Amino acid sequence: MIVNYTEQGWEIITQRAHGVLAAQVAINWRVKDRPERWTETLIAIADHDDAQTELQDNDLLTPQGGPVNFAMKKFEPEHCSRLHDFSVSKSRYIALLTSIHMCFLYEAEAESNPLVKPFLLEQQKLQAKWTEELKITQTEIKKAYGLMEWCDAFSLLLAQHEVQPESRVIEVSQGPDDQQYKLMRKPNGALTVKPWPFQEKAFQLTLETRMLSIIQFKGINQFKKELTEADIIEKVWKLEK
Hints:
The protein has 241 residues and is of the alpha+beta class. 41% of the residues lie in helices and 19% in strands. It has helices spanning 15-27, 38-46, 77-88, 92-106, 116-134, 138-159, 220-229; strands at residues 2-6, 9-13, 170-174, 180-185, 191-194, 202-212, 232-240. A hairpin with a 2-residue loop joins strand 1 and strand 2. Helix 3 packs antiparallel against helix 4 (92-106).
């Protein structure tokens, strides 16, 4: 889950909600540059965090009783195995993009965590197998995963309140076309991206969040109860060229 500390308390965004936001970004991508397997690409982007099911997990609190932000977590074999199984059951193409994403996330841990390197090697073997079976070129894979990674990064910037004030820019990520895109807020409050990568000149993005006023939780059961009963707040962003 994504955790933001605010004046009102903890703002909680589930990983799956973040995935939905990433897919909303992707579906607005310019038509001429969309990957050929467009539907499967959208599903992979929407579901790239599907295995993170907060209400079924128990490692959600820090020793001090605060919610654990996703960035605090390291490689979790059970989570990765579950995500792998979910993606494979949909299609080899979705599994391929999901596998590449897991390798991207955990390759930095390979030297410090002995569990990571065997996992990466196995995933790389599967990627080669799926690539050959699907007859997909490395250029096509790079383009499709580049879009997935870009939309993931864009979603995280919004979810973590990282849009800068006063028209200051923040870099999103290098897109599927190897361009560096920048996000900024316009004087009218709308957001814009330069260069503009979307099909329409204006559209909206939405994200469901939950606000918890309790700062320190006595245990996991209390946290899950508060999360389940919390009012849902829908955030809305307008994007304009």
